[in-house]
Amino acid sequence: MIVVSNASPLVGLAAIDQFDLLRVLYGNILIPEAVWHEVVVEGQGRPGSNEVSQAEWIAKRSVRNQPLVLALRQDLDVGEAEAISLTIELNADLLIMDERLGRNTARHFGLNFIGIVGVLVEAKHKGALPRIKPCLDRLRDAAGFHISDELFERVLTDEGEVV
């Protein structure tokens, strides 16, 4: 399975001490150079920086289709644009991305994608995480991650963790 990730899921999962769920669920993860730079270089000293730089199961890749990246940059940041481009180039099975505009763009290209909340749900379904609510609470409170009340309540209801 080929999986590409954008920056925010890496940072968010690291911030709540659930970074290793990515390895458990997907094995190896590919990230474009812009995501590496955003998380490891610009994010030095913040959640995700050490985790990504030290994870042997995360590989950095160059994006070849720079015209596509440039076109996508009209609406997306460079990390999102490169993550979508790399997913297309590699015909990857999954893109991990949270940003709404990026996900809409991925949908336009027919890409399979999941966000951090979906990763947590999948981890629970596969027995890698006992409960989702503590993670969602920490994402909101400690990591400053935006999760709408509607999504929060729907996920907890669906997963039998009534609010």
Write a structural description.
This protein is mostly helical and 163 residues long. The chain has a domain at 3-116: Rossmann fold (3-Layer(aba) Sandwich), CATH 3.40.50.1010. The protein is 53% helix and 10% strand. It is built from ten helices and five strands. It has helices at 7-15, 21-26, 33-41, 49-54, 66-72, 78-89, 100-108, 116-125, 133-141, 149-158; strands at residues 3-5, 29-32, 58-61, 94-96, 113-114. The strands form two sheets. It has a three-stranded parallel beta sheet. Helix 7 links the parallel strand 4 and strand 5. Helix 3 (33-41) crosses helix 6 (78-89) and helix 5 (66-72) crosses helix 6. The model has no long low-confidence stretch (mean pLDDT 95).
Defining key terms:
3-stranded parallel beta sheet; globular; Rossmann fold; 5 strands; two-stranded parallel ribbon
Short description:
Helices cover 53% and strands 10% of the residues.
Specify the helix fraction band.
40-55%
Radius of gyration (CA) equals 15 Å
- What is the class of the domain at 3-116 in the CATH system? Alpha Beta
Q: Could you say which structural class the secondary elements and strand pairing correspond to?
A: mainly alpha
Overall 3D shape? globular
